[in-house]
Write a structure and sequence with these properties.
Elements: H1 9-109, E1 114-122, E2 125-132, H2 135-147, E3 155-161, E4 168-175, H3 182-185
């Protein structure tokens, strides 16, 4: 058995060249890899900064929209309050002549010997408490109220004899009616 040894220097040089080429290629690939990684990180960093700027812009616009929405809600609340006040003023403007009309009709329908001690109003219903000398005066008073144009038919709820026996305390309720003509609303009707 014989061992052959190749002592040709060109093979060693070729091997060294290949080793250097491999090392240079490896270094270039490593440099390209590091450069690509650095470039990718810079791209991601730039992309992240853009997204953060967009998020900050969106947050700023959202806060501005929230404040605008709150202002709109405040204006709507104010509008509702103003509409409620306008409606209340309209009702008061309507009820003022109606109240005058009611009092005129009450005064015009008051029978001799009958006195009102308490008068209350809830919506369109009038509750009356009064004193009369006889039951007949209470009946006459109810007929007079029923004949008045400002009222519907009264309902008598209670009649009591006072302690002294000379007077009758009565409670009645009656619905108000709407005026039929503008003269009625102003209280300009004649007493009967």
């Amino acid at each position: 058995m014989s061992i052959e040894i190749n002592l040709l220097p060109w093979r060693e040089e070729l091997r060294e060249r290949r080793s250097r080429r491999f090392l240079v290629t490896l270094a270039l690939v490593a440099l390209i890899g590091v450069g690509a990684a650095w470039g990718a990180s810079q791209w991601y960093q730039h992309s992240l900064e853009l997204r953060q700027q967009r998020i900050a812009y969106i947050k700023e616009r959202t806060q501005q929209l929230d404040s605008d929405i709150q202002a709109i809600l405040d204006y709507q609340t104010l509008r509702e309050q103003m509409l409620t006040q306008i409606e209340l003023i309209r009702e008061l403007q309507f009820s003022r002549p109606q109240t005058v009309r009611v009092f005129n009709q009450l005064a015009a329908s008051l029978e001799q010997g009958v006195y009102y001690t308490r008068l209350s109003r809830q919506a369109d219903q009038l509750n009356l408490t009064g004193l009369a000398e006889t039951n007949r005066q209470v009946s006459d008073q109810m007929r007079a109220i029923a004949a008045a144009r400002a009222f519907a038919i009264p309902v008598l709820s209670e009649v009591q004899v006072e302690d002294d026996g000379n007077r009758r305390r009565f409670d009645m309720s009656v619905e108000e009616t709407l005026p039929e003509t503008p003269g009625d609303a102003a209280g300009g009707e004649e007493a009967r």
